[in-house]
Amino acid sequence: MKITANQYARALFELVDNRTQQEIDNLVLNMVRIAGKNRQTKLFPKIIEKFNLIWNNKYKISEVEITSREKLDSETENKIGEYIKRKYKTEKVVINNKIDANIIGGIIIKVGDEVLNQSIAEQLKKLSRNLTK
User: Fold this and answer.
1) pTM for the whole thing?
2) Sheet order of strands, 92-99 included
3) Where are the domains of the chain?
């Protein structure tokens, strides 16, 4: 019987939650051995993704990817973090600020599957669509 990435992730979460680092290291090593024995190592990226979702859901953590032309200052990151906490009812926000020189200005915020595109290019597209209606 093949074990799914979701099953591995759920089992891993239940095993490592509230354990010491040494216990976690041993449990993860055992899970890697089991996946290897079952020839399912290709599932690792999906297992990690699913595990992170389970962990973040339980501990009310939002992982946010913000794409901007330049690195955001800490004040802006804090404001966005507070907005995300309110919107998603989370207690902690982890921000990954990606730099993209192709963005003229503004930002693109991605939380899970949701994207809030506030780039200047997107605003210009919206304006153009509204003007041509």
Assistant:
1) 0.73
2) 92-99, 61-68, 106-111, 114-119
3) 5-57, 60-131
60: left (phi over 0), alpha (psi -120 to 50) or beta: left
Q: Which residue has the tokens 């804090």?
A: 78
| Mean pLDDT of the 22-33 span | 92
CATH 3.30.2320.30 matches 60-131: yes
* Kind of pairing between the strands at 92-99 and 61-68: parallel
Distances (CA, A) of 30 to 12, 24, 99, 104, 131: 10, 10, 38, 48, 60
Model confidence over 54-110: pLDDT tens digits?
999 999 999 999 999 999 999 999 999 999 999 999 999 999 999 999 888 899 999
